[in-house]
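pipeline/complex-builder :: batch 7 item 3
reading input block
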Amino acid sequence: MLEARNVTFSYDSGKRVLDSLDFRVKPGEIVVITGPTGSGKSTLAKCLTGFIPTSIPGEFSGSVIIDETEISELNLMEVAQQVALVQQDPESQVCTLQVSDEVAFGPENYGHNQEEIQSMVDSSLKAVGSEHLTHRRTFELSGGEKQRLIIASMIVSQPNYLVLDEPTSSLDPTGVLQLRTILEDLKKQNKGIVLIEHNLSAVLTIADRVLVVEGGKIHPFEQKTDKKATKSPKSEEIGDPIISTQNLSFSYGNQRVVKEVNLSAHIGEVIALMGSNGSGKTTLLGLLGGLLTPETGSVHLTNKSLESMNAKDIARVTATVFQNPNHQIFERTVWKEQNLVLESLGLTSSDTLQQSEALLKRAGIEEMKDRNPFSLSHGQKRRLNVSSSIVHEPKLLLLDEPFIGQDWEGCEFIIDAVAKTVNGDGAAIIVTHDPVFVKEYCSRAIFMEDGKVLLDGEPSAVLERLESLGHEEYSMEVKLR
Amino acid sequence: MTRFGYVQNDSILHRLNPTLKLFSLIVLMIGIVIYPSWRLSGLLLFGVVIGFWAAGVKLRLTKGRTKFVILFSILLFLVQILVTTNGILLGYIIPQIGPIGPLFSITDFGVERGLAISIRFLLLIFSSMLFVSVTDPTLLAHSLTKLRIPYRYIFSLVIALRFLPLFDLENHAVRMSQRARGITPEVTGLRKIITTIQYTFFPLLVSALSRVDSLSMSMDGRGFGYSRDRSYLRKSEWKGRDTLFFILTVCILAFCILLAMDYFPEIAIFL
């Protein structure tokens, strides 16, 4: 059994992130841990895997016990042979360029011979259904393939327990389905699994228990029914086109990733942009936001060609928010970051600053306005990204997977922001895999495959059609928010 | 956008022993420092370009980074011409027009010095690019381990090579995010230059540091540093062709040394 007893932890002698917390997971059990952004879930994962207090400084008390052995009696490498941690971003955990090298990395460090390593690599890749990737380059893999690779490289040393931090965050529905199968197989092999996850609907079907970390404590999950559903941003009236494309194509090198896309978004529309990883959604968003130059075709924003507009003209009308929050933070304080667009577009005034402060409050990060934005949690950074991008009230929102890593309040803030834009003569195009959001909050869904628009229509109709095309994973998740 | 990093292929250059390739790169650098002739550097640069062709790696002279390198080398050449006034006068950049000029003399020594510096710069960059493109980092790690270099140091090189393409992509993502906020790089005035640098390097630095944290946890979590030695699944080999290439490399180095010591005056006049 992997157990945390009376664990208390604080970074830099500050506020207690974990406060006398007790937790246990048995072999052959899948425990899902959820909770608000910044509640200490990832900190708990690091305690369970020995990184706290061994390599991450802070004030730690209590004990973590692995199969009756105190973790403090083991060094980090010995702990790693029994408990493995799969972190949130698979890209950052890959240290070699070939799949077989990556899986072999652990056994190589433990000094196994060449034949043993080969056999361990083969069996681990087989366990995650990725034998076909053996000779592939790691940087060429999709998000789902990378996630499976990291799991393979962690289970190769046969740990008894596996802790996964937000494992579905970079996966499309097909990847989530594959991950669930892998985890169920590992459970059958008597592995104890701890899943830290915001997106409960993705993992609930395989969970034996669901727990919540909040205020440094852990307690059983109860579905909250008293929360008011956020008002749908869908508008009854659809107006003129705000953006349209004609035969839009784009290539990276010789690889064409967007192929002759024709679409338009009208005032009042909330459009869900769906599709597998690598289908061209993010690139299309970049083209619509004037951030990439089309190879062929054109984009018209409010009846003007994007080619004739400069970056500031485009930024006045659009707000593009990408997935990685660290790439979109430029200033030294949250408040400066919040007002960066106002400053760059020359829109700073007492009125706009007042509105900006109100927006920051709605985002739930007003109290942190003097802090360095890079010190915020992942979810808070993403909320700041959205908040600082819409402070000038743009007419078109282009959001790439905005709900990843967000708790209920974070999702609510983003949905409210979309509603405000759409009801103020604007439109929103949102890359998402969440069928609940698509059905309840979007007026239209577009499904992309291999750079092309495969389906475009009313959300329920698109999801039904996807089911009939064999993509039932895009509509099978249960509602939990 | 072009990707910078190892390019998988099965050319003769790819198959050479990785340590030998690193040794050859170092020899090339030492050679042009010992005998800094623009003709010899040009000859070696020609050899490197042939190397790209033989390795099946596209150089893409007119795109992105490579284009910048070439433009910068041209700038180096022009600056050298402008600042070097001694030597035989060949002409002026701005001839005499009425009462104005002539301005900015061009001398044979200035041209020679400009060529030497700009070609050496191109050789330095392109040979390093070729090395990175044809060297599998994992095999490089193994072959350097055989030289008794501690694997902890070697892996910092492997990881740098692994992350090169990623940082390339991140730089692209940061620039897109800047444009999305209406921020365009500005270089008119010191304050604007500092802001431009801040807006580019802050996000890149933070992203790099957070990746370093994740990566070090990931490596520690897989037993990196468990013992003084480690084993390897894929191993580098030394074959007959490596011996031949090694002899050729040593001969080039010896040739540069002898040229510098004026042992071959009849050849030196052509180089």
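note: The CA atoms of residues 135 and 222 of chain B lie 25 Å apart.
queue -> next item
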